[in-house]
Design a protein that fits this description.
The structure is a homodimer. By secondary structure, chain A is mainly alpha-helical. Chain A is built from 10 helices and no strands. Chain A folds into 2 domains: 53 residues, Arc Repressor Mutant, subunit A (Orthogonal Bundle); 140 residues, Tetracycline Repressor, domain 2 (Orthogonal Bundle), CATH 1.10.357.10. In chain A, 74% of the residues lie in helices and 0% in strands. The first copy, chain A, binds a DNA duplex through helix 3.
Chain lengths: 203, 203
DNA sequence: TTTTATATTGAACATCGATTAATTCTGCGA
DNA sequence: TCGCAGAATTAATCGATGTTCAATATAAAA
């Protein structure tokens, strides 16, 4: 077979994704270039398209990698956490986004055509972040209302996400808000407290 | 002076913004084209650049228009609201985003270079949406804690925004969440309730 | 060695944002 | 009425994008 270097197809794909992720972190979604990614690993643009299929699939793979790194980051934050695991989750969410602005924003900058869905494998990998939150929310809820954990957890992720978004895109800074993390954490605490007394009252 | 049609500079700018907004609503941020906007009003691309300056300023103007339409939409929702004005706000937020997906998303898809700020005029126009929420939040808070209204309102906007974002980009649908509006409203209610009893307790 | 299969290339294409020289038009003063 | 300064507009140009695909190069099989 006509390979010039000794990389298997899978290895080549990994190199493209890893280097593509770095390129995304460097220049951001709007200045991202598939040509540049190919150049960075010493291959031509044609090879990139043969391996990745098209632009969307390259971006999807890069963004899924961001999710994986993000999930690892949050797990580590939980691992070295004290009692206040909820705070660790919120700080982990913000911490990763702030430390990886371009890559993090690319997740939400990229929209695939409405008729195309995420490959299931990517869904599963990305979903682990939410699953992690569901687990922690379940721990905090009274035993008899743990069934609500998934729905509440998704809602709290959305809450934190909104705050994180406004932090990253400068909206909060513009409005003079200087502690977005504490703000988000306050909202999360209120909702968790409500879920706790709500369950108590229903007993 | 050498104008071929009878539109003043200001009129031309308005035409570009209005038609640009329609084009954005039609094709979305990623497929948006300044050339196409110029073509749609029967002018050349050069004229567009002479009037608007550059691409970013065109997008900024279009997005500010989206904010203005959004604010009007919310005011109308409040105008025809019953007692539950908080619900009207949340439903208005989602309602506009859902009815104007492309234009709404373009607001958050567009990032201007970090060294360039939004012109003050645009800041003011866009800020009215938040001001509207601040007013309503203040109404619901006890008199002695109204000073916290701006900060709490911004936080609640972020909360709703996160839910709306997950609704629009399909995350909620993917996770099986079918009533994002109710979910967001529940979070807002909990935080408002907490602020109310919090003030009561401090009395 | 010859054949075959496949990995890889990079020029070609249409389109994009951005710039600018050249052209066209218009209102005003002489 | 005429001429012209200057504003308005265009068309051509540039470098770059995603994408395609015939041509090429290479390693394994025959």
């Amino acid at each position: 077979m006509g390979r010039r270097s000794d990389h298997s197809r899978k290895e080549l794909e990994q190199m493209l994704i890893v280097e593509g992720h770095k390129h995304m972190a460097d220049v951001g979604f709007s200045r991202f270039s598939a040509r540049e990614v190919a150049k960075r690993i010493g291959y031509s643009i044609g090879t990139l398209y043969n391996v990745m299929g098209n632009y969307d699939q390259l971006i999807i793979a890069i963004n899924t990698r961001t999710f994986v790194l993000w999930t690892d980051y949050m797990r580590q934050a939980l691992g070295s956490a004290g009692d206040d695991r909820i705070r660790s989750l919120v700080e982990g969410y913000f911490g990763f986004a702030r430390a990886n602005r371009n890559a993090w924003m690319a997740i939400y900058d990229h929209h695939l055509p409405p008729d195309i869905r995420l490959p299931e494998e990517h869904d599963a990998l990305r979903g682990q972040l939410t699953e992690l939150v569901v687990e922690e929310v379940a721990k905090v809820l009274p035993a008899d209302s743990r069934a609500q954990a998934p729905r509440l957890a998704r809602s709290l992720v959305a809450t934190v996400h909104g705050h994180c978004m406004f932090d990253i895109n400068g909206s909060f800074a513009l409005m003079g808000e200087r502690e977005p993390v504490e703000l988000a954490l306050a909202r999360v605490r209120e909702s968790l407290a409500a879920a706790q007394v709500g369950a108590q009252a229903a007993t």
